[in-house]
Amino acid sequence: MAYSMYIDGAWYAPGDTFPVINPADGAEWTQVANADRPATVQAIESAAAAANGWANLPHTERARYLLKAADIVEARRDNLVDSLVDEAGSWIGKAMFESGYVPGIFRAATAAAYQTSGEILPSEHDKVSMVQRCPLGVVSVISPWNFPALLSARGFAVALAVGNSVVLKPSEETPVSGGVFFAEVFEEAGLPPGVLNVVTCSRERVTDVGEELVSNPHVRGISFTGSTAVGREIASRAGFLLKKACVELGGKDALLILDDADLDRAVNAATFGSFMHQGQICMSVERIIAAESLAEEFSGRFAANARRLKSGNPRDLGCPIGPIINERQLEKIRTQVEDARDRGAKVLAGGTSNGNFYDATVLTEVTADMQVYSEETFGPVAAVITAADDDEAIAIANDTEYGLSAGIITADEERGLEVARRLHTGMAHVNDSSVNDEPHVPFGGMKSSGLGRHGGRASVDTFTEMRWITLERGGRHYPPPFLEPK
Length: 486
Ligand code: NAD
Known about the structure:
By secondary structure, the protein is α/β, with parallel strands linked by helices. It has helices at about 35-55, 60-75, 75-85, 90-115, 150-160, 175-190, 205-215, 230-240, 265-275, 290-310, 325-340, 370-375, 390-400, 415-420, 455-460, and strands spanning about 1-5, 5, 10, 15-20, 30-35, 120, 130-135, 140, 165-170, 195-200, 220-225, 245-250, 255, 285-290, 345-350, 355, 355-360, 360-365, 380-385, 400-405, 405-410, 430, 445, 450, 465-470.
């Protein structure tokens, strides 16, 4: 069986399909419709045709569809969990978390439907002077494979709630859990045709399909989550075309362990932050900056804890290390660890792989000339670096092109908040790992980690345009030479 695409409220099978691989065993999991550019145009045109009707529905009606969708996702949770495990290579615990989180995204988005409020401004001419928020129109949503359901939902939920129509293109690695699943859910919820379209395509087609999703004149907004390299291209193209783009990109997040840190807390935050979903999270802890006085004890305990993490059957709760998504990613991880080893890093845990499974890896004596110091790994590899004091720790943490999230572990909350203030990141968490999200918070990065924010009120700004509208009531006087003689 092959999955179809969803365009204008109907299932569309172009005949051409591409395979989706289960990363745990390398076997083909399914086939999915392979869109070309004309099919993408069709999806965008159907979104454009649906845009006005959807925008003009009362916000309460739009909210109702999202509430229904949340209930349907809950009812179909087992189904979503299965594809998150088999298609996205998720450990069962991660799949349970992600499938449980998505309904909350839809419910939080309904609050946004009530928040497209404007302002009444004072007017020198006694006009009624209003600021209104209106939807952009058609929004293209492009999502990655690591949290395919969560990040697709985050990409389009508020966009829909505030009155935009959407064309969603999930990753070629996860077209079902990141796309087709949502088409099924919203079809069941009775969403009007064209309001949410799902286009799936292979890696070979993505440049062409992606170009259409950005440059088609009907598209007024782009929500992209993925790598910095692709996001930069998309944001540049959108900038040239003067379209609004929110791009959530890569990271090289740091966990700073200050010299007064509780080591129990530090080891747990580091282990979860570095190894949850095999480190394939944009805000994974990739650099641990430990105070010199406790670095050795911390590294020993952290490495021992990392060695406990088993890989294997992703459906086994006792095997939290799942597979790496594909061979390309696996090769990148191997290359970075080899490069670090060659340049003098010590491998305290891991550095080994079995099939597509890469073991939780702890590197110490990491220096600035190593790839793992500066390049995003997106795998289960934690680089421990030491710092003499808070100033040096902050300087190392900021010594990266990225700026997504950070964690700081300290017994002194004031000190933690002061360090957080000095970090160049969009998000920072005291006494926690860098991995944190909630549907209503302004999620996003600085520097090469992206532009724009997702979540709650921030998404209302992202997916609406501000307009100034006035009503003149006799107070406006034009210069006399312009007046019609009486
Ligand atoms: P990717 O950039 O390869 O792909 C992301 C999406 O873009 C996919 O749907 C892909 O098909 C599409 N794409 C690829 N080339 C395109 C093109 N030329 N035009 C249009 N679309 C194109 O990223 P990935 O490998 O799927 O995801 C991993 C990356 O995503 C990591 O760098 C990670 O840090 C980042 N990420 C960021 C966040 C965040 O919120 N900041 C969240 C998750 C992942």
